[in-house]
Amino acid sequence: xxxxxxxxxxxxxxxxxxxxxxxxAYDANKQAYVKDARAGTYAQLVQxxxxxxxxxxxxxxxxNPKEKDLAKWIARxxxxx
Length: 81
Known about the structure:
The protein is an alpha+beta fold. The protein contains 3 helices and 4 strands; from the N terminus they run E-H-E-E-H-E-H.
């Protein structure tokens, strides 16, 4: 499953873009979306989901099966799937 942001719920808080501006970006309405899922790590997706004040970020499933500490990040991602 690909990561995504429920863009219409975005409050433009900058939490996700502060984590990785290549992974997340704002559209013309200043609402976040996943710009390039390969530009960051699964850990960054999960951290952004945890910081999102409206729980609009869904990290999906990991793209890199060899990412460090992946089992930990998958467990932390469960509330956001």
